[in-house]
From TrEMBL:
Name of the protein in its database record: SAM-dependent methyltransferase
Keyword presence, NAD: no
Xref: CDD domains: AdoMet_MTases
Entry keyword set: Cytoplasm, Methyltransferase, rRNA processing, Transferase
An example molecular function term from Gene Ontology annotations: S-adenosylmethionine-dependent methyltransferase activity
Residue ranges annotated for the RlmG N-terminal domain, each copy included: 8-180
Organism: Psychromicrobium lacuslunae
GO term, biological process aspect, one: rRNA processing
Transmembrane segments: none
């Protein structure tokens, strides 16, 4: 079956493209093969795909079973765009209904195909939603790369399914099959809640958000040294790659007259940032976007950034450099970019080239904080 689908034509765009980054892997092939056992249930009304990074699962299943539509949940906006672009490139006319994690996605689902997330909290939120909304006889087919899997994943699924079994490894991937979803008497609520006493801030976090209910140590280090010295009025500030929205919330509290925008490509992140703002009664505009592409050029006075150093499961600096380019486009002349990053990444030269004059604000054994000023000739 897999040989008849043109996996080699799939692309990651608009996400990073690189020689060592791929739009599909062996765990996708494993899931597609396993779905064959449940082919009678693989229909538009009964199939749901979750975590399809670039569309390999949705597109191959749509082509194989001639499906007019598929319900799909992808946390990243760039994943949604990649699926749309790959569908167009392959000439597939199916309606890929890209939906949030919840009732509309899962009601009536009998076969759920899942690319396993690395985060146990994200897996738990997904399993919880399946147990709440999917058909009582639904089967979950979940697969991932062995190096990113753990026995704890089986334990999480066992809380929400009566039967969970692991398959044999194949091409460094493994399948987990979970059947008979059932909500336990007690389970954590999402978004999860915590109180950050050092910031006097209520935090609300969905499972897919980095650092969870704790304050990220890089963010803490940035806040310790953050002093932009800007006017109290007519300032637009952006938390670029906002995660749970901690930086945006701190900015909104310190400068209530500023326009604060929190943006991320992750639906879990923007929903977390929105909930964090509401819990603290703060006015923050929250935007799900690809590197703030929908914001006008030269419209921002201040950007705060704690960039990731990975692209999906691969360690890669390309995501950070893409965000630097976005900051360069967004900032007004002499606008400021405050960045915190792991010391070994040595981003200062890149920041100077892309943004302009970049000053070292602070550094310790693990992190560096820099302040960059947008120069027109950068």
């Amino acid at each position: 079956m897999n040989s008849s689908f043109a996996f080699d034509r799939l692309r990651r765009s608009p996400d990073l493209e690189a020689a060592n980054l791929f739009a599909w892997d062996a765990s996708d092939l494993l899931l597609i093969d396993e779905a064959e056992k449940y082919s009678a249930l693989v229909t538009a009304k009964q199939l749901v795909v979750i975590g399809d990074n670039y569309g390999a699962l949705s597109l191959a299943l749509a082509a194989r079973y001639n499906l007019p539509s598929i319900r799909v949940h992808q946390d990243l906006y760039t994943s949604e765009l990649a699926l749309q672009r790959n569908a167009q490139e392959l000439g597939l006319g199916a309606d890929f209904r890209q939906l949030p994690l919840g009732a509309e996605l899962l009601q009536g689902a009998k076969v759920i195909i899942l690319q396993l997330p690395r985060s146990l909290a994200e897996l738990e939120e997904i399993a919880q939603q399946i147990a709440r909304y999917a058909d009582a006889e639904a089967v979950l087919l979940a697969a991932g790369r062995l190096k990113h899997m753990s026995l704890a994943m089986n334990q999480v699924l066992a809380k929400y399914f009566k039967q969970v079994r692991a398959g044999l490894a194949r091409q460094k991937s493994r399948l987990l099959t979970a059947e008979q979803p059932s909500l336990p008497e007690q389970f954590p609520a999402f978004p999860q809640q915590s109180y950050l006493a050092e910031l006097e801030l209520q935090l609300r976090v969905h499972g897919a958000v980095f650092a969870g209910v704790k304050l990220d140590i890089g963010t803490r280090y940035l806040l310790t040294h953050f002093s932009p010295e800007l006017p109290e009025n007519n300032i637009t500030a952006v938390d670029l790659g906002c995660g749970s929205g901690v930086l945006a919330a701190v900015l909104a509290r310190r400068q209530p007259r500023w326009r604060i925008i929190a943006t991320d490509r992750s639906s879990a992140a923007v929903e977390s940032a929105r909930a964090t703002a509401a819990a603290n009664e703060l006015t923050i505009e929250v935007l799900r976007d690809d590197a703030a592409a929908s914001l006008p050029s030269a419209s921002v006075d201040l950007i705060v950034l704690n960039p990731p150093f990975h692209a999906g499961s691969a360690v890669h600096s390309g995501v950070a450099h893409r965000l630097f380019e976005a900051a360069s486009r967004l900032l007004k002349p002499n606008g400021q970019l405050w960045t915190v990053y792991n010391r070994h990444l040595a981003y200062r030269q890149a920041l100077s080239k892309v943004i302009g004059r970049t000053e070292l604000v602070a550094q310790n054994a693990k992190f560096v904080v820099t302040k960059s000023f947008r120069e027109l000739d950068a």
